[in-house]
Amino acid sequence: MNKPSETHLLAERIKKNSAAQMFTDIASRGRYATDASIYQTIPVAVCVPTCADDVTVALQVAKELEIPILPRGGGTSQCGQTTGAALVIDNSKHFRKLLHVDPVEKIAIVEPGMVLDHLNAGLKQHQLWFPVDVSTAGQATIGGMAGNNSCGSRSIAYGNMVHNVAGIDAWLANGQLASFGLMENAQGEALRLGQFVEQLARKHQSDIQTHWPKVLRRVAGYNLDIFHNQNEKPYTSDDKVNLAHLLVGSEGSLAYFKSLTLNLSPLPQHKTLGVVNFASFHKAMDSAQHIAHLGPSAIELVDRTMLDLGRQNPEFKSTIETALCDKNAPTPEAILLVEFSGENHQELLTKLKDLVTLMADLGLAGSVVEMTQAQMQKNLWEVRKAGLNIMMSLKGDGKPVSFIEDCAVPLEHLAEYTSALTDVFHKHGTRGTWYAHASVGTLHVRPILDMRKDGAHKMREIAQEAAQLVRKYKGAYSGEHGDGISRGEWIKWQFGENINQAFSQIKHAFDPDCLLNPGKIVNPPKMDEHHLMRFHPKYEVSPLKTAFDWSAWNVQNNPMTEEISAPGTGLDPANGFAKAVDMCNNNGHCRKFDAGTMCPSYRVTRDEQHVTRGRANTLRLALSNQLEGNHLASEVVKEALDLCVGCKGCKRECPTGVDMAKMKIEFLSHYKKEHGLSLRDRLIAYLPRYAPIIAKTPGLAKLVNLRNQIPLIAKCMEWLIGVSAKRTLPQWSSQTIWDQPNYQFGYDDYIVESLPAQRMVVLLADTFNGYFEPDNLSAAADVLKAAGYWVYIPRKEKGQYCCGRTFLSSGLVDEAKIHAKELLDLLSSYAKADIDIVGLEPSCILSLRDEYLMMGLGEQAELVAKHSFTFEEFIIKEAAKVEPPKSPHVNKFQFKATDQEILVHGHCHQKAFEVASPVIEVLKMIPGANPKMIESSCCGMAGSFGYEVEHEKISMEMAELTLLPSIRKAPDAIIVADGTSCRHQIDDGASRKALHVAKVLQMQLK
Ligand SMILES: Cc1cc2nc3c(=O)[nH]c(=O)nc-3n(C[C@H](O)[C@H](O)[C@H](O)COP(=O)(O)OP(=O)(O)OC[C@H]3O[C@@H](n4cnc5c(N)ncnc54)[C@H](O)[C@@H]3O)c2cc1C
Ligand code: SF4
Ligand code: SF4
């Protein structure tokens, strides 16, 4: 353990001599204490270099102070190799450039922090790709992949990382740079080290021959076999020795990669996919060896548990069902995804037919779903890649634990091995879900263990029995995810004493002072040491009275059946909040940059602090008293949550359902109770209460509107309350919606005999549309009335009904509850009469389906939630209804044609609830319209976030990621955005007036 003075000195000296960011505070170090494994060790300090020169300085200073170094990419390792009491150096923020591409030689040179997906996006223009397609492609870095000798789903065709790396330039432990490539060209230190390892390999040749697993998927230990290949696939195409391969799989313990030269492959032009459905798991396993003879590029397994879990998830259900021969029949026990890829489409179709024939020959006629369409295949692969995360969504303390999850056995033994290991699990009172790489005998399986109870003990027992099976079937104990802590102690078992000694000598030759990721591969700790674990039997959570009802997470599970106990029975002192936070398993999926929403603040900052994972870790550490006295309502937690815009992107896209938007509200409720509300908080939260006063007091609205016209007032407001002067504020309308007589009906009035309840609708006027843009509400009412609906806009004697959104965003959950109860009292009578409630502002209407269900509001909330819809959702639902033959309302929604370009920006909450597509669908009801969804994350305004002076800049940066550039590229398009704050952001950033979809439909009414 390093003394604080040394840590301080380390940070000061690195900062003084480089541009690197240094973090020594406990919260930052805590966020880098874990990877995607069960382990946790608080690092000495964290360094985020801006370039290679910064790394040189960091390595030099750490060496002088004898502080160990731990290089880090995405931190998605599963065995604990990216945890350690060291100076953690995070390459992923800046040290991630594509340095060179040679499309002719098919070579790319990259910095280690580059993410695989980003590399492949850059290579697409050359029709090339880097084919080590790990499931974590959106967040895994090339440095980390090389560190782990990672392998993708298509390793049967392309091999592992070691087969695809051509050279590595690396810093050695003494700070010197060395070039590792072909042995015949080696010079200086690289040559000296290469020759040293070569003589070791020669000395141990017979041991290597005897003990080395002869399978493609062996990633344990150092690659001493590069001089005498033991792998199913040669490491190089011409049998030459490449010294870079020594570093691949070294888990940061031999050298620090500066740049990597990669061999690229042509992007396959065509792919076909056969999905084989099996009624027996054993049969699936037994069939893999036969299917492999057809030359597929992948054979991937998904078992029944995962299929069932996936079918329960709205994001995956429909895709999974495309893979089933009969979606109404019982779920198959397993499916195998068999992919063929290449240049000639016809050949691939033939191979697909061969698969059908083969399965018939094996007694399974009619068991193959043939997928030739690229998008369908892509969707299914995404579900397969999410496999582990689907499994990890299990609530309760028992979690699927990774420690034997990638043992590789020869294909002919796969069926026997899987059934023997299943028996082992049962013996220990647990079970595992099987999935992944059947093509290469590496099936992933994680038994469910409770590390807070007897998990560590069971883990060792299961590991021992699994190891015996691996030996029996001549497999490799570590076939994909590396050694780290969970497998380090098995290296000696796998390779024998002599080779283990040789590994120690290699380590000593490269790193005599043992400063590079110590304890990994050589001298590893025991896999079950409690002090290295994230959760252990002494793990404690502080009691907490929560604002929301988190009881759905406060449960336990049965490891054999995966059944969940009743809500509230999980014994969480934080009433379920801690267990909801613990759902984050650190897989880093929130670091992706794809078409989804999650996580906008990370997309802009690339900081671990500002990603969902960093936030969940901060909350976890605070709730379990690991932040040196900083409790939940402390400033360090506030800082971590500060840039969370509450977009709910994570609610939908985090595979384990971490809902940080709700967690932020929970946090704010504690923080505000302890620290009080600022004037700005009050102005934002209480808007629904004072809005009627402004609206009703003659001349006041006009006066307030002057703020946008007189810069001095804006500047004063910025100075006094922190609302950015760069922003225009929403304008108070001269007439609110409640002043417009057309829509004023009370509950009693609606009983009009000629109209059935289905023809009535409550249009919920929210504060924003009601006071600032009442035209949107009248447009919605016009569209609904034109289609024959009787529209009721609720109005109160004093003020207006409010959903409580502004209070929730400010953490005032109790105040929000007052409004929620009042609103539910009103709306439940309509809901009981089967009358739907429609809202225009997504964040308001959807809170009735989301936060309301966690506020202890009982059955009323459940009932109203079932009847609450966004405007466009309601139209789509109604338009799909079959009218009775004599109904006067056939073709109820009719619009004039348009040929104008229409672009839609989906509000984050629409996307989180999967209700963004109805906006497109209603627009398609306009003849000639061809609306397109802008592929954008959060607009960045996010309620009041973008108006706040300290957030204005980052808010704009979020908008500039894709939203504003897409709008600027379409100067004549109609821009549709249902969120009030989205429309303001678009106006401020692109000077374009976006419209609520209701306005567009009103414009096109016949
Ligand atoms: C849900 C899930 C699915 C996964 N699927 C796969 C899969 O399909 N295939 C697979 O192989 N793995 C898989 N993994 C494991 C992991 O994602 C991969 O090993 C990945 O390549 C690690 O990349 P990273 O950037 O996160 O590495 P990190 O965890 O950051 O680092 C990995 C190792 O490399 C070392 N390292 C990092 N940078 C350097 C450097 N510059 N110099 C020297 N050493 C360095 C680190 O010290 C560490 O020991 C999965 C993990 C999860 C959570
Ligand atoms: S927040 Fe979700 S996506 Fe991010 S690391 Fe945790 S579990 Fe994965
Ligand atoms: S709510 Fe949005 S900003 Fe906040 S953590 Fe989730 S994805 Fe990120």
Which terms would index this structure?
1006 residues; alpha/beta; 25 strands; 39% helix; 12% strand; binds flavin-adenine dinucleotide; binds iron/sulfur cluster
Q: What does this entry look like structurally?
A:
By secondary structure, this protein is an alpha/beta fold. It is built from 42 helices and 25 strands. It has a 7-stranded antiparallel β-sheet with strand order 15-12-14-13-17-18-16, sandwiched between helices. A 5-stranded antiparallel β-sheet has the order 5-6-10-8-9. α7 (188-203) packs antiparallel against α19, α31 (774-786) crosses α42 and α36 (871-879) crosses α38 (917-924). It is globular, with a radius of gyration of 30 Å. The N and C termini lie far apart (76 Å). The structure holds flavin-adenine dinucleotide (FAD) and iron/sulfur cluster (SF4) (2 copies). Residues 35-36, 70-78, 81-82, 91, 112, 134-136, 140-141, 143-145, 147-148, 150-152, 251-252, 256-257, 388-389, 480-481, 517, 587 line the site of flavin-adenine dinucleotide (FAD).
In short:
The protein is an alpha/beta fold and 1006 residues long. Helices cover 39% and strands 12% of the residues. A hairpin with a 4-residue loop joins β5 and β6 (107-110).
Give the overall form.
Answer: globular
The N- and C-terminal alpha carbons lie at a distance of 76 Å
What class do helices, strands and sheet pairing give? alpha/beta
Query: Going across the major beta sheet, what is the strand order?
Result: 15-12-14-13-17-18-16
Could you say which small molecules are bound to this protein? flavin-adenine dinucleotide, iron/sulfur cluster
What's the helix count?
A: 42
Helix content: 25-40%
State the low-pLDDT regions, or none.
745-754
**Mean pLDDT across every amino acid position:** 94
Rg, Cα atoms, Å: 30 Å
**How large a portion of the residues is in β-strands, by DSSP E?**
5-15%
| Biggest pleated sheet | 7 strands, antiparallel
Structure summary, number of beta strands: 25
